[in-house]
Design a protein that fits this description.
CATH class of the largest domain: Alpha Beta
Number of helices: 23
Helix content: 40-55%
Distance between the termini: 49 Å
Structural class: alpha/beta
Number of strands: 14
């Protein structure tokens, strides 16, 4: 996928990776294909009435200033299917190695198993249209007009073709005679992508060096007690599902509650409830469900925490299924930026009621100090509950340039511009510590929002995350935090999906390929088990013995080559700016007042 000239491999790869990696595009049931011609094609083709088999794309033109070259799509198909390089393709082979050419051949035939209905439903959402506008500036019609409508038609028609949704089929279904690739714009995108990749690498290198310094200054001398938090704790657990009905928002949802149990030697009562345990709430990501972090709920329950995991209607797997089936028009509504934190607050209110009146819960929950774990959209949810306020001024400034960014999470964050002002204060005073995994929030919260958090925070990041890029969504925001108790866990090689477990209720609409999940997901989950246990034992249960597990030295000790990790407590805007070779004001709009000499507290 690194062919230099022509740029087709990059464009096709870019297109395919966006389609596959977006959490909003998923496989639909087979029966929907029969509905395509009667429902979708009449909706698509009026925008491209010139489309017909006779006017399907025949050539790709590459324009760079006044220079123009072209190649026939037939020759690309011959090469993809037979490996034969014909005359008009031969002129390009001098610019690519044999390995790159083989990558091109593989890429042209790589199939994304997505139904035409799923593709169409997404491409008609706000997020889908933004992506089409971006691609349409690069992949144009022969008349140098945006390829927006032609791309949408080509993607849908290719998905309905027996050959499947492949880059080659998309090219063949392009409903005009010629496809024009603007190399000036292509190279600008490539340059921006390379800059982001290089800056992320420099930032991760700075984190690695800082982690090594912190490990050297505070080495581990004894790991005999308490037990290694990667392993299950001493308690077993029971899981109960409760239904909640918030009439003030006309919102009904369910939550799974994991309650720790103590094993006894009494045969009459072999299991006994553990009284007055700290409570941790988990918030799943967009398009996920409450069971994908069941593994973490069970692990934390084994250490004596009560864990509650709500299902967020309107941003869960059911919402994406509704989108695909035509029952919803958007991936999620802007109101979910408000509803999700309110779901957690309502759940805590209900748990307080049950703790006083329900026999199964009575006296078992300590709701004076609560922890929250959230992934992706759930990461934002945790940050909002911790006190980070929506920054509408930041949204207005940054979303104006949204279409030029490589940060896919802005497709979601910028939807918050549609919220009615003023936004509610979403902080819940019962929340005493949060862990945000691959969170989004760089512009919806911004430096001002992150600086408002005054409780312990752990941010978890993966440098291979293409949905919520590490540098933009976790590393820079970490330097904006002003709370004295902050931690950044970096998993080198981890993606946006590495820590997500398998749904117990079969909510996955598509099985993600290993390349999207990333290496060693089981190892990633074991890191999350360990670090969340240590973090909440220290900052909720106030067990200072776990302090030894919450430092760079422990991360260094358990780090494995398949998925190395680093843990830092100190990374300032100045350090990050130096690592990136940029002025301090470019690295942070708000200078952190967190000093490396700050003392850790348990507040």
């Amino acid at each position: 996928m690194n062919c230099s000239d022509p740029a087709l491999p990059f464009i096709a790869g870019h297109l395919r990776s966006r389609l596959i990696s977006s959490p909003s595009i998923h496989r639909s049931a087979r029966w929907v294909r029969a509905r395509l011609k009667s429902i979708l094609i009449p909706a698509v083709l009026p925008a491209v009435l010139v489309a017909s088999p006779a006017s399907a794309a025949e050539r790709i033109y590459f324009s760079y200033g006044i220079i123009e070259r072209s190649i026939s799509i037939d020759s690309l198909e011959t090469y993809a299917r037979q490996g034969t390089i014909e005359a008009d393709l031969e002129a390009y082979t001098r610019y690519a190695s044999s390995e790159q050419l083989e990558q091109l051949r593989t890429l042209l035939q790589a199939e994304a198993e997505l139904s035409p209905v799923a593709i169409a439903q997404f491409l008609y959402t706000d997020q889908g249209e933004i992506l089409l506008r971006r691609l349409g500036e690069i992949i144009q019609t022969e008349a140098r007009e945006s390829g927006f409508y032609a791309l949408r038609a080509a993607l849908i028609l290719a998905a309905d073709d027996p050959g499947g949704l492949t880059p080659l089929n998309v090219l063949k279904k392009f409903p005009v005679a010629g496809i024009r690739i603007d190399l000036n714009r292509t190279l600008a995108v490539v340059s921006s992508l390379e800059q982001l990749i290089n800056q992320t690498a420099e930032a991760v290198n700075a984190i690695e060096q800082q982690s090594a310094r912190e490990a050297a200054s505070d080495p581990i001398t004894d790991l005999s007690s308490p037990p290694d938090p990667r392993r299950l704790g001493q308690f077993t657990w029971q899981r109960q599902t409760i239904t909640l009905n918030d009439t003030s928002r006309d919102r009904t949802f369910v939550a799974d509650v994991y309650l720790p149990l103590e094993v006894t030697s009494d045969p009459t009562y072999p299991l006994m409830p553990v009284p007055s345990v700290p409570v941790i709430i988990m918030s799943h990501g967009l398009g996920s469900d409450r069971t994908t972090y069941a593994y973490l709920g069970e692990h934390l329950a084994s250490y004596g925490f009560a864990v509650a995991i709500p299902e967020h209607p309107g941003s869960n797997a059911d919402q994406l299924r509704a989108l695909i089936e035509g029952r919803a028009s958007q991936v999620t509504e802007p109101a979910e930026f408000i509803n999700r934190p309110l779901d957690v607050t309502y759940l805590l209110d209900e748990l307080e009621r049950l703790n006083q009146s329900d026999f199964a819960f009575q006296g078992r929950l300590d709701l004076r100090q609560v922890g929250v774990v959230g992934q992706s959209f759930g990461g934002y949810t945790a940050l909002a509950l911790a006190g980070a306020q929506i920054n509408f001024q930041q949204l207005t400034e940054d979303c104006a340039a949204e279409e030029s960014t490589l940060n896919l999470s802005l497709l979601l964050q910028c939807r918050a511009e549609e919220l009615v002002l003023p936004a509610a204060d979403l902080r819940d005073e019962r929340v005493a510590a949060i862990m945000a995994i691959n969170p989004i929030g760089s512009i919806i919260l911004g430096p001002a929002g992150f600086s408002e958090i005054d409780i312990p925070v752990m941010l978890v990041s993966g440098n291979a995350d293409t949905i919520a890029p590490a540098l933009l969504e976790q590393i820079r925001p970490f330097t904006w935090l002003t709370t004295p108790n902050k931690y950044l866990l970096m998993m080198r090689g981890s993606t946006h999906f590495s820590t997500i477990g398998t749904s117990e209720i079969g909510s996955e609409i598509v099985t993600l390929p290993p390349e999207i999940i990333g290496p060693s997901p089981a190892l990633a989950r074991s890191y999350i088990n360990a670090m969340s246990t240590a973090f909440f034992q220290l900052h909720l249960a106030k067990d200072t013995d776990y302090l030894r597990y919450l430092g760079a030295a422990y991360a260094e000790r358990i780090s494995e080559p398949a998925l190395p990790i680093d843990l830092v407590r100190f990374l300032t805007p100045a350090q990050l700016a130096q690592a990136l070779g940029e002025p301090l004001e470019s690295s942070s709009r708000l200078q952190s007042n967190f000093s490396p000499n700050s003392n850790l507290s348990l507040n």
